[in-house]
Amino acid sequence: MAHRAIRSMRGVPSGRDALRLMQRMGMEAKPIENVIDVTIRTADKSIVIDGPTVMSIAVQGQTMFQVAGGTLREAQSTQEVRASIPETDIQLVAEQACVPLEEAKKALEISGGNLAQAILSLKKEKP
Description:
The protein is an alpha+beta fold. It has six helices and six strands. 46% of the residues lie in helices and 29% in strands. The strands form two sheets. The protein has a three-stranded antiparallel beta sheet. The radius of gyration is 25 Å and the shape is elongated. The mean pLDDT is 81.
């Protein structure tokens, strides 16, 4: 009994009490099993967390994901940009800048898929 009084004084509910409190607040937490990795992509890099513990928390119609633990590694995201550039964008840049398709593709990769930036960079390079 004494340990319960100490915990309640600190304001830290125990496991079962915490679950009840969450249910009263409309929160539902579920673990996501067998997670291999979690990837966070930004404009210039990818953050990969290998072997994390992931919880799905639903609160008032919103779903949040809590990622904990695991091994962190970073990678450049240029490979994903290269794979996602549509052929029509490459053709459009090549026509507008009057350059071969390969040059247009390289410019799009450098610009991160930004058509206007790729065209402007190619036009600046031409004498």
